[in-house]
Amino acid sequence: TEDAPSAASDVYKRQVMYHLYRVGLDGGEPEAFTGGTDWSRTGPQFSDNGKKLYCEINPANEFVYNLSAVGRFDWPESGGLGELTVITEGFDRSVNDIEISENGRTVYLTAADAGRTRIYRLSSNGGNVTALNPESRGVYGGLQLAGRNLVARWESSAVPAEIVRVDRHGNNTALSSFNTERVKGLDRPAFREFWFESSKGRRIHSWLALPPGFDENRKYPLVLQIHGGPFSSSMDAGHVRWDATLLAAPGYVVLMTDYTGSVGYGQQFSRNIQGDPLKTPGEELIEAANAAIAQFPFIDGSRQAATGASYGGHLINWLQVTTTNFKTLVGHAGLVDLEGQYSSSDTIFHREIMNGGPAWGDSPVWREQSPATYAGNFSTPIMLTIGEKDFRVPVNQTIAAWSYVQRMQVPGRLLVFHDANHWIMKGAEAKYFWEEVHAWLGKYLQD
């Protein structure tokens, strides 16, 4: 429903707002020219004639998730602002990369949609938002107008990122070849996709990444790759920090499911995670695996593993205490205790909104959907990894999970990267991480 948990009704008033500022060309103190607690405003840009100011706007309210939209102000010569007009009203996707045409009549933007990022256009006066190519694959980013041409970065699960020119029909012409030679000769099958209806009646989207040398007549272990966020999604593209193609390389089929809370499926689908941070997403991951096994005969359902990082790591610990479907688990930067992360993370206000109030209140979510509550169920072999400089999911959460692993005498491995933050980004450390992940999975999944 559209109703948010009542216990969180006033928490949103405490969030940090973003406003627009101006400063003279000769310097001086920046002066705010927007204010209030109703909307955050970011990414301002003028129309060519300087009479309109556009920006990305995001409302502040009692919901843990809101769509970002395009706002437009009149810009009088006096430098003041006119009334805010939301020109993407009714567009059920979050907007990015706003660009205004030279004549000021058309607004171009990008938005996530069912595991892709597409390019859209609409009149600068508002109205219908239409995709240049509603069937496009891959991910667009960094959209810009160059004269009458649209230019962007584009990539897909089978094609590395390059700069492309996009025509009015949404067709690409490559302008660069920075990565094309680097991946030449690599076997990178495009992701396959499927949908299923969950036990709660929700349509759930998934991708499958296939291994190199894929043979339709063979049987492959299934490895879940659970995305973070949760207000994110598994995209039809590579990922520098947690790549499905690399995960599939030893001979696995990798399943990426956009569980409840994911973006690109409308505002309500994302909001449905409010008050239900782990239980329903965890159930949907199991249901997605079952649906994939039933639909694709090349998946060996007797050999399953699950991996995830950040919010995906939270869900790994939840799967640890709620199912024995998996032969092994790999979790990076995952919480094991809702209150423990809340009280030590670098960003916390939205966690109160998510869980129905503060940890000391009367919301049962803090205990009922915290993996630590069920630590006595730890039984699946697990590898845990963390960056010691992680302030989003501090190292104490992984150490706590490791304590439960040891207490329950579960086979496990702990890797702490002393120079890493929320992600393992240094080349040598990333290489070591992937070697360890493949070795750990191979121990439990290979014939």
Q: Can you walk through the features of this model?
A:
- The protein has 447 residues and is an alpha+beta fold.
- The chain is 19% helix and 29% strand.
- The protein has nine helices and 22 strands.
- The protein has helices at residues 244-248, 267-271, 279-295, 311-322, 338-342, 349-355, 365-368, 395-407, 427-445; strands at 21-22, 31-32, 39-46, 52-59, 69-74, 85-86, 95-100, 106-113, 116-123, 130-131, 139-146, 149-155, 162-166, 172-174, 192-197, 203-209, 220-226, 253-258, 299-309, 328-332, 382-387, 412-417.
- The chain has an eight-stranded mixed beta sheet with strand order 15-16-18-17-19-20-21-22, with helices on both faces.
- Strand 19, helix 4 and strand 20 (328-332) form a beta-alpha-beta unit.
- The radius of gyration is 23 Å and the shape is globular.
- The relative contact order is 0.09.
Sum this structure up briefly.
The protein is an alpha+beta fold and 447 residues long. The chain has helices at 244-248, 267-271, 279-295, 311-322, 338-342, 349-355, 365-368, 395-407, 427-445, and strands spanning 21-22, 31-32, 39-46, 52-59, 69-74, 85-86, 95-100, 106-113, 116-123, 130-131, 139-146, 149-155, 162-166, 172-174, 192-197, 203-209, 220-226, 253-258, 299-309, 328-332, 382-387, 412-417.
What is the number of E strands? 22
Count of runs of 4 or more consecutive helical residues: 9
For the sheet with most strands, the description reads:
8 strands, mixed
N-end to C-end Cα span: 46 Å
Layout: helices, strands, pairs:
Blueprint: E1 21-22, E2 31-32, E3 39-46, E4 52-59, E5 69-74, E6 85-86, E7 95-100, E8 106-113, E9 116-123, E10 130-131, E11 139-146, E12 149-155, E13 162-166, E14 172-174, E15 192-197, E16 203-209, E17 220-226, H1 244-248, E18 253-258, H2 267-271, H3 279-295, E19 299-309, H4 311-322, E20 328-332, H5 338-342, H6 349-355, H7 365-368, E21 382-387, H8 395-407, E22 412-417, H9 427-445
Parallel strand pairs: 17-18, 17-19, 19-20, 20-21, 21-22
Antiparallel strand pairs: 1-2, 3-4, 4-5, 5-6, 7-8, 8-9, 9-10, 11-12, 12-13, 13-14, 15-16, 16-18
